[in-house]
Amino acid sequence: MSNTIFEFIGGDSGEWKLRDMQLLKGEPLKMVEYLNKVPGSLEKSKHGIWSLKGIISNLRYTEKAEKEQLLAIQEDLGRPSATYAAFIPLKKSVDWWNLAQDERRKNHGRKF
């Protein structure tokens, strides 16, 4: 089975050099020079200045036609043709987690 948990580590070295960091809302992350993606676990990381966990999960709110469109154009991270990327960490609120799945999809534009 392939790994579904990844860790994005901000630090002094890594796979991607950061050009810019901008805060839109919430607590800021400490500025770092590089971002690295490594297979992770649920254990707290001891690497980098900060780390964020990412989990690949099923496409819960995606209808069949939408899923087929995504799979037709989706490319892997780390491909040679990708020279720029945007990393957008999100934290969902308690209100969002308390919604049923149909409510989450219906209310995707609401601020939580």
Strand segment tally? 4
Number of helices: 3
Q: What would the principal axes of the Cα set say about the shape?
A: globular
Taking Cα atoms only, what radius of gyration do you get, to the nearest Å? Answer: 16 Å
The second-level CATH architecture is: 2-Layer Sandwich
**CATH classification, class level:** Alpha Beta
Q: State the separation between the terminal residues, measured CA to CA.
A: 34 Å
Strand order of the largest sheet: 2-3-1-4
Fraction of residues in H or I helices: 10-25%
**Integer count of domains:** 1
Low-confidence segments, given as residue ranges, are none
Mean pLDDT: 81
Helix-strand category:
alpha+beta
Measured by DSSP, the beta-strand proportion falls in: 15-25%
CATH domain topology: Alpha-Beta Plaits
SSE topology string:
EEEEHHH
Characterize the structure shown.
With 112 residues, the protein is an alpha+beta fold. The chain has a single domain, classed as Alpha-Beta Plaits. Helices cover 18% and strands 19% of the residues. It has three helices and four strands.
